[in-house]
Amino acid sequence: MSGKILPFVIVTVMLCFWLRSKRLAKRAERLAAEIGADLLPPERQNTDRAYPDPEAEAVLAALSQGDWQPAAQALTATGTDWERRSYLVGVIARRAADDDTWLRAWQAARPDDPDAAVVHADAKVSLAWQIRGGAWAKDTSAEQFAGFHRVLKEAREDFDRATSLTHPDDPTPYVLQIPLYMGLSAPHEALHQLWAEVTARAPYHYQAHWRALQYWSAKWCGSADLARNFAAQAAATAPRGSLLTMFPLVSWYAHNDDEAPDEAYGWPEMMALTEAALADVAAARPDHPRAAEVRHLLAYCLTKQGRHEAALEQFRLVDGYVEAVPWRYYDNPAEAYCRVRDVALKGAAASRLAG
């Protein structure tokens, strides 16, 4: 008789565990929905920005009407905030790459305006990358490469003019040349010389380091080792609040995310890098134009580490805007963002129930 009862007991116990797990899963699902009730669905995520920027939106709205003066005023107002200045130049230049009618009017009205000159030069770089496209080299045509290199060489002359007009302390025209050097596969010594010009003016410039890290990456002009060393040096020498401690994480993600097992994000080294970046972004000035980009990648890394409550905190600070790494690398950034955010939501709900 006992031989018949034992299987029955085992099945009963297993059924009880299954029913309990199912009930907990349902409760976790309901709690996740409650926790995330204020978060936005994919169709309401802005894929053009990493964070809300009313000034940039107002400038772009004016440019769409052919009015360049708000752009000029916004750039003047940045003063010596070099992070904000290079960011705004990029926003304005990308619009000029699509239609530069208003930029030509600006230049006609103010022929030697350094702001118009640097926008013009950076617009050429944006245009060159549009011509090339985002595909791998093997999937890019000879015609695309020819146009790409031709426009980049034109941009080099435009940057020479921009640097001659700009204030000697302004790093912007040097920072914005880094993609040009990358696209033309400039030798390392040339990049070192350009980098000396950047760091002499702004040694802890986030966008400059972001672009230089791309140059040193294996995909472009360097290697995984060169990129890792560059990122480590930046993180080791920068003051807290500069956000440069993020670059070891950025380098690791760029070179390893596709092939590394999920548990790699939980290795002690990665946990330490994440903690350093969290402390850095917490110390950054509230209006730092790159803080949101840092938070996006932190949200991804924290989710991968199973630190769902911490990830959810970062997601809440950037929700609604997804133009950042890692989401921009997906065909549908908004869906990719929401998919990972949902993992953090469900994990946070399960943790609260277990607690």
Structure description:
The chain has 355 residues and is an all-alpha fold. It has 17 helices and no strands. The protein has helices spanning 2-35, 54-64, 69-77, 82-98, 101-109, 114-132, 142-165, 172-175, 178-183, 188-201, 206-216, 224-237, 247-256, 268-283, 291-304, 308-318, 333-354. Helix 1 (2-35) packs across helix 17 and helix 4 crosses helix 6. The radius of gyration is 24 Å and the shape is globular. 41% of the residues are buried.
Strand content: under 5%
Q: What oligomeric state do the depicted chains represent?
A: single chain
- Using only CA atoms, what is the Rg? 24 Å
* Secondary-structure content class: mainly alpha
Morphology call: globular
Number of helical segments?
Answer: 17
In the predicted model, the low-confidence regions spanning at least 5 consecutive residues are none
Q: What is the average of the pLDDT values? A: 91
Number of DSSP strands?
A: 0
Measure the end-to-end span.
42 Å
Estimated helix fraction: 55-70%
Largest sheet: none
List the secondary-structure elements in sequence, H or E: HHHHHHHHHHHHHHHHH
